[in-house]
Amino acid sequence: MSLHQLSLSLQFGRFDGAAAHRAVLPRHKVTRWIRHALASDAEITVRIVDADEGQALNRDYRHKDYATNVLTFDYTQEPVVTADLVLCAPVVEREAREQNKSLEEHYAHLLVHGALHAQGWDHETSEADAQEMEDYETAILQELGFADPYAA
């Protein structure tokens, strides 16, 4: 399988417990996970933030006043995908715990999910689109050695 090129900027905000998140997200793993989700070359910034920054961004850009797991800011899809993926560490950590997943496994899923959004995939347009996106995410994650993220 030929993977597309990725120029990655990986950033960590300052927050309690950041070291644990940084340890789970070495550059080579983040790059590998995102590259498996790419249909073309990309320039992507991944930023791991605290709840305050995550909530402010979600409020200011999506008009939803809470911290969410991943926000995708997509700028171009052709000829190169350019996007920012912002992941809220406390939300990711809480969800991983609630879903009985490792932190690494949940980050991998959310990075694949965000990368698909950056390329125009949308699960909020219809049930069929949601199912298609979930199926594709599952296939990518299984290719990476992870379990189906949507399995009950």
TrEMBL record:
Keywords: Cytoplasm, Endonuclease, Hydrolase, Metal-binding, Nuclease, Ribosome biogenesis, rRNA processing, Zinc. SUPFAM superfamilies: Metalloproteases ('zincins'), catalytic domain. One of its GO terms (biological process) is rRNA processing. It is an enzyme of class 3 (hydrolase). One of its GO terms (molecular function) is zinc ion binding. Single strand-specific metallo-endoribonuclease involved in late-stage 70S ribosome quality control and in maturation of the 3' terminus of the 16S rRNA. This is Endoribonuclease YbeY. It comes from Acidovorax soli.
